[in-house]
Structure formats: C-alpha cells, structure tokens
Amino acid sequence: MAEWTLTRRDDGNNDYGDRFWVAGPFEGTEVAQRFGRLFPPDAPIRVERAGGGEEAYTVEDLPHIRLAQGDRLALPGIPVAAGPLLYVMERLLGPEGCPWDKQQTPDSLLRYLLDESYEASEALVAGDFEGFAEELGDVLLQVVFQGALLPHTTFAAIAEREAEKLVRRHPHVFGGAKVAQASDVRQQWETLKAREPAHAASATWVYPALVAARRAGKAGVEPQSAVYQDILASLEVYFDKNPGKIEEILADAAWAVSESGRRHHADAEWALWKRVVDLQQGPQGAKKRISQNLGE
C-alpha cells in the first residue's frame, strides 16, 4: 500500500528528505482510514499526478482525494513507529507552535522525565497494563522532546545508537559467541559495557530525593538551618520514647512533610531534591544550573 523513500531535494544539493508515499490506485477514504488519525487535520499533504502536476491538500481532505494508477500521495511524516509523534513535536516547537514547549530546555524537562518513569512503574506494579501502555507513551514523549532539544542529535540518531549498542552487546545473537544461560548473558553484558568509553561526566546525585539526601548525609553534607536542626532533634526525642519503632516514626514524619507540602501546594519530593542539589554543588556548576531551571 505504501513505501518509505529517500529523496534528494529538488534544488539539486546533497541534502536528503524523508517521504512516505501512498501509490495509487486508492480511494481517499481508504487512505484516511489507515493514516488520517495519525496526523493533525491541518497537516499538509501533496499529491503528484501520473500525468504531471502537484496538488496541495491537508490531512482532513483525504476522504475527498482519489489516487489513480501512477498517482502518489506524500504524507506529512512516516506513519510508523514514532513518526506521527515526531511530526507533532516538530510542529509544537516550530514558529507557530506552543509557547510553553518552545521555552523548555533539557534541564527544565528533567522532572517530567523522572515523573513519567515513576508513573509508568506504578502502573506496571499495579498490574494495569492498559495504563502501563499509556504511561510508556508519556515516557516516549519525554525521549522525543529531549531528542528535539538536545544539540547535535536527533531522535533517529538516539534510536540508531541504541540499536548499535544492542547488537554490540549481544554477540551470542548477532555474532559467533555462545552462552549457556541468562546469567552468562548478564555477565557478558557487563564485560562488554566495561570496555566501552565511560561518559564524560557523572551526576550520581540524580536519585529520588530521600535517597539523594541519605547519600549526601553520608558525605557530610547537610542543611545548617534552624528548621533542619529542630526537626532532627524532635525526631531523636520520638526515637528515645519509642524504641524499636524507628521505621514507623520515620515513615510518619516523612508522610507529614509530604502532607504539609500538599496543603501548601508544594511538592516536598521536588523541594528536597533541589535542596540536596544546591547543598552538594554550591552556587556554581551544572547542578545549581539545573536546580534553577527546573520548571515548576
């Protein structure tokens, strides 16, 4: 019914473009049923007639178009995998796109990348597989969004790199290596991973807020505020009066902090995370920059 093609731009230079062509004969209603829901109604499409000439339409015009033998129709994007999402993201970040989306940076989107991952995990653990599928879509949105904002890369490049990594780390599937069981695969993966160049920077402080705070405390970093000292002292009183109930007390105290944040329309988890980042990094550096730029 359709084919993906690589085309050279009409001006004759060496740039290439992606097209997804629908080749006639087809009734427009068939094309609309198959592809119409994947793109916004106002997305542009183009019909090239076998006898010459081009006609410009939008996706909402699909039911009224007829493709004869030799005619072909160019859709606004590749309609498989992440193609429709990539098209929508391009529009959102384009000249006539969304003001909020165009203001975002990879740093400001970090909280959403983390939040959506947690929500997907929640649905999976709850056994809500319909919800899990939906939340995976939200995670994919964050990957597409970040790929669109990062310099010197694209979503396609990210996907290609990951495919290459999977082939490289599965020589028992794509090469001549032999493994006996799953544990051997895991060991092989770690061995191959260790041979690859490490990332240039490390940011081990990006953990859930309580984990990050515990790690910071082990490193000797803690707030010096009166609030911190008073609450710490109060907890020690509760511990002394209720031996054997430390976990219960900690849980209720953490819950109380969360509830207080909710009542005052603040996110206690995010507030603690930013506080840890600030104290660990100080007024300079990438961590402080991220803390300042996080979208609220």
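That was protein one. Protein two is written in the same sequence-then-structure order:
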Amino acid sequence: MIVLESQDAELYARLLERNLIRQYDLLANCIEIGLKQGPFALDKYVLWALNHVAVANISQFGGRFREEPIYVGDHIPPHFDQVPELMDRFISFIHENWDNLSPTQLAAYGLWRLNWIHPFIEGNGRTARAVCYYLLCTKYGGLLRGKKIVPERIRENRRPYYDALKAADRAWENGNLDVSALEAYLAQLVSEQLSDA
C-alpha cells in the first residue's frame, strides 16, 4: 500500500513527516547500539532499516538496494549492478577510517558517498542524512544536544548542502576524494545545533 505525491500531496506530506519521526526513533536506537558496539555496528542491515522506515507507505521498494537505473538531476548514479560492491566498499571505508577521521570528516564522507551511490529507489537523501547524524553522534560519543538536529537544519536550507555535494562530486570526477566543503558545512551545523541546546 503506497500513496503517490501526485495523487494526494497532503497525505503524502503527512506520511513523509511521520516517517521522519519514526526514522529518528530508529536512528536513536542505532546510535545507542553503535556507542556500545563500536564502528562495526554500522552495516547494510542498518542502512536498509533506516531507508525502509523513511519511505514506508510512499515506496514499495524501501529497505533494499535498487536493481534499476535512477537519475537525480544532472547526477547519474552508478549502474545498479555496481551498487552492492560500492556499498560494501562504503561500509568498509567507514570501518577502516573510524580512528583516522574526525566526526565531521567521517560524516561528510558518509553523506556524500551515499548520495553519490544513490543505492535506493527512494529516500536516499533522508537515509544519507540519517547516516551522517549516526556518524556524528557515535564519533562524538552520544546524542548531540540541541533543539534542532543537523538533518533538520540541512532540510531547511538545502542550497549549501547541494553545493557542497557537487564540490565533492567534481573532486571525485577528477580522481580525488575531497569532502572538505561538506565537512565545513557540517561543522557549522553541529556548532549551531549545540549552541541551540
């Protein structure tokens, strides 16, 4: 059972908001587990669960990697045959660089790479922002205080977010991994969240 935005925009918007609340509840559980179990608690099953909750009742293929082409503006994500390996590499990168990168560096990588791979049919941005926040909180050592969390702040003003993602895309196209613009953006949002506590 799904609701399409084109059929009932008002109901679709309500479902989207409720899904975000449920996703945050699940995310809080995941953060608690991640704090106890360490970096290896993040796996594809966590990603599948976060995506499934984000798109419940608005997409029939939530919680599983896409098996068809998808297009996002001027970004053409990798072929769907590559998604499982790219996601294995994504998770491996997080595990292997857990102790080498700062919270904002790791979160910036997670946010950019999930958006670049676009592993799901629907809800990629919501899932990427949830993973970003998971990485921030688990690296910082707990749920960050503040009335409005980083993912909400991103949703409110998407232009700097899109610009920073595109900067990372351009670097990748030139053979470099550079998420510094996204890291600076996230550092600012974390600072704003903490000052709003």
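The mean pLDDT is 96. Keep this in mind for the problem set.
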